[in-house]
Amino acid sequence: MDEWLAHVPAAGLVFARCGGMLAIVPPLNVRGFPVILRVGLAGVLAVALTPVATVPEGLGHLAPGAYLALLLQEAAVGLAAGFAGALVYWAFLIAGQMLDTLLGAGDASARAEGRGPIAGLVYLLAATALVAANGHHWLLAALARGMQTLPIGGGWAPAGLAGLIEAAGVMLVTGVAIAAPALAAIYAAEVALAAFDRVAPGLGLCDAAPAVRWTSGLLGLIVTAPLLGRVVVEQGVRAAQAIEAAFRMLAG
Question: How far is residue 175's CA from residue 180's CA, in Å, rounded to a whole number?
Fold first, then answer.
């Protein structure tokens, strides 16, 4: 029992890092995912990873204030690593947001906050596909390797997070590429509808514009769906790499 209690301070720090990462990393960052379940997963990971984590000596003799500072530091490290992984995966959210904006789906406030129906659907499908491809194992493996790259309780270099700017650029480009087929279908339908309306203005084809826009957008998404699995896997690998890179950058 005494030996188990000696590992509690280290387990607390590991739990703080795991909890920070699981708070934002995909697929757990899907809206509606129970917070209590994230906390439970963080606890399970802390128990599993504490024996292999590199921790400083003398944690049991730290003053409460110093230990609390370490807890906050590890939670910040976990959040930074999770943000790096989520940043890569937000490409799917961006793709859905562009389609929501173009189609006028949902209300304006929801679209502004990225809570449009298509954005939520695309991101949920991508998160489900990530789990189906065992991509969550890659992310957890990146977390475990990060315990060695940046030891628990060790110093970190926040300036290293400047490297996330490159990941943000990749996210934007990938988001546009994911939405490109649906965007192209909507644009082609709009052009065709405008051309027909100009040739035969009396038909009132402009009244059918919303239905044509939605139909073409959905057809574009259907065409994209078979390719989505490969993109999800690629983004899952990139997310794991981004998490590991974040740990390396934080380690200086």
Answer: 8
Residues contacting residue 13 through CB under 8 Å, at least 6 positions apart = 55, 59, 70, 71, 74, 152, 153
SS3 content of the chain, % helix, strand, coil (to 5): 85, 0, 15
Summarize pLDDT for 49-93 with one digit per residue, the tens: 888 777 767 666 677 788 888 888 888 888 888 888 887 778 888
204 contact partners, CB below 8 Å, separation of at least 6? none
Residues near 60 by Cβ (< 8 Å), separated by ≥ 6? 6, 9
Cα separation, 156 vs 212, in Å, equals 53
Tokens linked to 106: 């949902």
User: Looking at the 3D structure of the chain, how many domains does it have?
Assistant: 1
Residues spanned by the domain of 129: 2-250
| Regions of the chain with pLDDT less than 70 | 1-7, 31-32, 56, 58-61, 106-115, 154-171, 190, 193-194, 196-212, 214, 225, 227, 252
Distance CA 43, CA 38 (A): 9
pLDDT digits (tens, 9 = 90+) for 171-190: 677 777 777 777 777 777 76
